[in-house]
Design a protein that fits this description.
Blueprint lengths: L4 E6 L7 H15 L3 E6 L26 H10 L5 H12 L2 E7 L7 H10 L21 E7 L16 H14 L4 E2 L3 E3 L7 H15 L28 H7 L30
Helix pairs in contact: 1-6
Length: about 280
């Protein structure tokens, strides 16, 4: 039997941080389960976040108008991407589970992690118009966001001052991870550890360790499958009319993003539906 593999993409500057502790718990627990665990410590690696001409080795297809997506797709096809991108892509290829560990910055990921996503998840390698969402390149892999916040959980409720955390997570979980085909597991959210007593932080890490014991067996979050849409430019990639008619009587929209003008399905981006739903 092949060894199970995991990749932790880690984005925090300090080895004494709670994020570092959460990373270490994941490494220890997954290793104890027999996983081969790779860690990409982005700050320690001085990983470059900007997308530039340097990401392509050799001549450009169109040197007069540099189009990053087109040039990197061609470079990926011809094995001409920069070495740091190729190294990270190899780690993703090998991993059946990818954990992103980071502090929430401005309702999103730190710039260095956004740069990892921009540069590593190139067109062709991670997605295409033919291979996206539930038919995506990484449909056999699972991914999970594990992050800390500076806010309390109540601040990210639908009636909290920051708004619904499910809305904040939609671009990352649907627009990046699920778009590339990942089966996205419910996020591991550590609410305001900097404001918690030591005992509470210890309990948070214990809860993460406990969850990791069965993480791969968890059902993924629910997203709208491609089959519900007219996947053509003529059809505008819109929900099929018969599907809209069928869904009309339902109280909630399909997902956080595909709300159809209805109330959002509760906890769509933070909790997986039970397997029988």
């Amino acid at each position: 039997m092949a060894q199970k593999t995991a990749l932790i993409v880690y984005a925090h500057q300090s080895p004494g941080s709670f994020n570092a502790a959460a990373r270490d718990v994941a490494v220890e627990e997954l290793t104890s389960q027999g996983f081969k665990v790779a860690v990409s410590d982005l700050y320690a690696m001085n990983f470059r976040s900007s997308t530039t001409r340097d990401d392509v080795i050799g001549e450009l297809k169109n040197p007069d108008l540099f189009q990053y997506g087109e040039e990197t797709m061609l470079a990926w096809m011809e094995s001409r991407l920069s070495d740091d991108i190729v190294a990270e892509q190899r780690k993703v290829e090998e991993a059946e589970l990818v954990i992103f560990q980071f502090p929430l910055y401005w309702f999103s990921v730190p710039a260095i992690l956004k740069g990892w996503m921009d540069r590593v998840l190139t067109q062709g390698f991670a997605f295409s118009l033919q291979k996206m969402y539930n038919h995506g390149v990484f449909k056999d892999k699972k991914a999970v966001l594990s992050f800390t916040t500076g806010a309390t959980s109540s601040m990210f409720q639908p009636d909290g001052i920051n708004g619904d955390i499910n809305v904040a997570l939609w671009p990352l979980q649907n627009g990046t991870l699920h778009f590339c085909g990942f089966r996205v597991l419910a996020p591991q959210i550590f609410w305001g550890p900097a404001h918690c007593p030591a005992g509470v932080r210890t309990a948070m890490l214990a809860g993460w360790r406990s969850r990791l014991k069965g993480l791969l067996a968890e059902p993924p979050l629910t997203f709208a499958p491609c089959e519900l849409f007219d996947l053509s430019f003529q059809g505008g990639f819109l929900l099929r009319p018969e599907v809209k008619e069928e869904l009309a009587p339902q109280r909630y929209g399909i997902t956080t993003g595909h709300h159809l003008g209805k109330p959002l399905p509760p906890d769509n981006q933070t909790k997986a539906k039970p397997p029988d739903n």
